[in-house]
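During the reporting period the student researcher (J.K.) took over the structure-prediction task from the postdoctoral fellow and processed the backlog of single-chain submissions. One of the processed entries is reproduced below for the supervisory committee.
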Amino acid sequence: MTIATFIKSGLVAGAMLIATMGAGQTTPLNMTVLGNASPPIGAYQFCKEIPSDCKNPAGDAGALVLTEDLWKTILKVNYETNSKITPMTDMEIYGVEERWAYPTTVGDCEDYALLKRKLLIDAGISPSDLLMTVVLQPNGDGHAVLTVRTDRGDFILDNMRNKVLLWADTEYTYLKRQNAADPARWVKLQDGRAVAVGSVK
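J.K. obtained the following structure tokens:
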């Protein structure tokens, strides 16, 4: 599948999703923020190493107004990053359990998300709408994705799939993510699809 074909199919799927969201469906568009949370240790260390990438002097710009051109850019960045980077664990790459870093050829889940965030910031999207997010997979393993906060809902860029989905259409339990006003701070999330709230230490 060429990138042009992929983007075209993604646009059709996105248009169908947006149309469905406007048709009285009960799918929650945005995650619920509960309060402050401690950042993951990898995020804390990343911010110490590259403090400029953990600042947003402009603060919260409000949800991104999602246009067709921006949707194309989001799909392209997700697809090309997933295609370019080979998955490897931090232990395999660095010999440690967790290290957040920009990948060049190999990386794990948070590295993919960091690179996508950087590329989308370079494309003109506010850092306040590009939020590193920690989730649980159905098997209980931790995972990191990038949330793109838009006026059409919170969309997820994931190294495990090329399709960009609304957060509630994924199989994950959402625990915490970066604060929209300050990338160095984190907030707890409530998964509105379930009664239980994921506890975050």
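The committee noted the following: The first strand starts at residue 32 and ends at 37.
J.K. will present the remaining backlog at the next meeting.
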